[in-house]
Specification:
34% of the residues lie in helices and 18% in strands. The mean pLDDT is 97. It is α/β, with parallel strands linked by helices.
Length: 410
C-alpha cells in the first residue's frame, strides 16, 4: 500500500475562519458558543449554538458563484481554498484526473428546504426556485470544490451523519493507497443551524437547553446534558508520499491507519459496551502498526451527551486495556460544538496541529468528573511530544470511524 501524507489544512469554524485562528483558539480554550442569531428562538427550548462568525463568501470566490451556493458549500470551498494554498498545490502542474475530492455533508441545506417550502405554500409550485435541488443536495459541496479548482478525479460525498468527515478522510486515504488518485481533498462541511434542524434535534432530546455558553458543551463532565449544534468545514489535502516529496511539499504528518465499523445496534445510541467503536480503533491501530502503548492522544468524539461520552469511554477501555490510563483524551466539541458532518474534518486538523505543535488542547468547561467517565480528559492544555494520535467519530445509525495519525518519519 502507498503511504499517505497530510500536506494542506483548511478550516472554517465557530472559533476562527482559518486554521491558525482555529488552532490558537483551541490552545487557549476559547469557546465559540453563543446565542443563536440565525432565527428567532423565542418559542424554542434551545437558545445556544456555535455559529461561524464574520464569514464573507466573497473573500473566497466571486459573488455570482457564491449566490449559487448554500452556506455548507461556501464553507467547503473556503476551507478547500485555504488547504490548497497551504499545500502549495498548483493544478497547472498536476494531472487533474489524479486529483480527487472526498468531502461530505451529513445534511446538505436545510435552509433551502425551509425557504422553498414556504414559497410552495404561499405561491404554489411555480414559485419554487429552479435551483432548489442543486443547492440543497449534500454532494454539491464536493461538486463545487471540484468545479472551483478544476479537480477531475474521483469525486464523492460520504454521508454517515456525525461520522461523515472522518469517513470522508478515510475513504480518500484508501483511494490514494490503492492508486486511484495521487492527491485527494478530503473532509466535511455543515450548516444546519436552522429552525427545522434545531427543532428536530430538540425533539430527539439530543441538544442541551443550557443558557450558559461555558456550561453548555461539556463533554465527559457529570453535568453534561446534550450537545450544542455547530457549523463550519474542515478540509485537508492528502497526498501520496512520493508525490508530495517530488514536488517539495511540506509534510505535516502521515495518515497511517483507518478503521470503520457499524454497531448494528440502534439508530441513535452507540452500542452500550462500546464494542463497535473499540473495533474501529483497533483496526486503525493495526493498520498503522502501532500498539495501544504507542498512542499518545485521542481526539474523542466527545459530544457532551450522556450516552456518547459514557459508551466512548467504555470503547477506549476495551480497545486499550491497561494502556487506557496513560492516554490523553480531549474533545474539540467543548469549544466549537458539534459540527455534525464537518466534525471529523476539523477534529482531524486539530490532531495534525497537536502533532506539529506538541500541544494537546483542553476539554474546555470540564469541571465535575463523572465516576463512569474515568480517563484523563485534559482539563488544562498540555505541552507534550505527540508521536501518534487517534481521531474518533460516531454517527447516528451506528457508524464508527477512527483515523490514526503519526509523526512523519522518512
Amino acid at each position: 500500500m502507498r503511504r499517505v501524507a497530510v500536506t494542506g489544512l483548511g478550516a472554517i469554524t465557530p472559533v476562527g475562519n482559518s486554521v491558525e485562528e482555529f488552532w490558537e483558539s483551541l490552545k487557549k480554550g476559547i469557546v465559540g458558543i453563543g446565542a443563536i442569531t440565525k432565527f428567532d428562538t423565542e418559542d424554542y427550548k434551545v437558545k445556544l449554538a456555535a455559529e461561524v462568525k464574520n464569514f464573507d463568501a466573497g473573500e473566497y470566490m466571486d459573488k455570482k458563484t457564491a449566490r449559487r451556493m448554500e452556506a455548507f458549500c461556501q464553507y467547503a470551498v473556503a476551507a478547500a481554498k485555504e488547504a490548497v494554498e497551504d499545500a502549495g498545490l498548483d493544478m497547472e502542474k498536476e494531472d487533474p484526473f489524479r486529483v480527487g475530492i472526498s468531502i461530505g455533508s451529513g445534511i446538505g441545506s436545510l435552509q433551502a428546504i425551509e425557504r422553498e417550502y414556504q414559497r410552495l405554500l404561499s405561491g404554489g409550485p411555480r414559485r419554487v426556485n429552479p435551483m432548489l435541488v442543486p443547492m440543497m443536495i449534500s454532494n454539491m459541496a464536493a461538486g463545487n470544490v471540484s468545479i472551483q479548482f478544476g479537480m477531475k478525479g474521483k469525486c464523492i460525498n460520504v454521508v454517515t451523519a456525525c461520522a461523515t468527515g472522518t469517513h470522508s478522510i478515510g475513504e480518500a486515504f484508501r483511494s490514494i493507497q490503492c492508486g486511484e488518485a495521487d492527491v485527494m481533498l478530503a473532509g466535511g462541511t455543515e450548516s444546519a443551524i436552522t429552525s427545522l434542524g434545531v427543532s428536530g434535534f430538540t425533539a430527539l432530546t439530543a441538544l442541551t437547553t443550557s443558557t450558559d455558553p461555558l456550561r453548555a458543551s461539556i463533554p465527559f463532565d457529570k453535568e453534561r446534558s446534550g450537545f450544542v449544534m455547530g457549523e463550519g468545514s474542515g478540509v485537508v489535502v492528502l497526498e501520496e508520499l512520493e508525490h508530495a516529496k517530488a514536488r517539495g511539499a511540506r509534510i505535516y504528518a502521515e495518515l497511517s491507519g483507518y478503521g470503520a465499523t457499524s454497531d448494528a445496534y440502534h439508530i441513535t445510541s452507540p452500542a452500550e459496551d462500546g464494542s463497535g467503536a473499540a473495533k474501529a480503533m483497533e483496526l486503525a491501530m493495526a493498520e498503522a502498526e502501532v500498539t495501544p502503548e504507542q498512542v499518545d492522544y485521542i481526539n474523542a468524539h466527545g459530544t457532551s451527551t450522556h450516552h456518547n461520552d459514557l459508551f466512548e469511554t467504555r470503547a477506549i477501555h476495551k480497545a486499550f486495556g491497561s494502556a487506557a490510563g496513560k492516554l490523553l483524551v480531549s474533545s474539540t466539541k467543548s469549544m466549537v460544538g458539534h459540527l455534525l458532518g464537518a466534525a471529523g474534518g476539523v477534529e482531524f486538523i486539530a490532531c495534525v496541529k497537536t502533532i506539529e505543535d506538541g500541544f494537546v488542547h483542553p476539554t474546555a468547561g470540564y469541571q465535575l468528573p463523572d465516576e463512569e467517565c474515568d480517563l484523563n480528559y485534559v482539563k488544562e492544555g498540555i505541552s507534550k511530544n505527540i508521536n501518534c494520535c487517534l481521531s474518533n467519530s460516531l454517527g447516528f445509525g451506528g457508524h464508527n470511524a477512527t483515523l490514526c495519525l503519526k509523526k512523519y518519519e522518512d
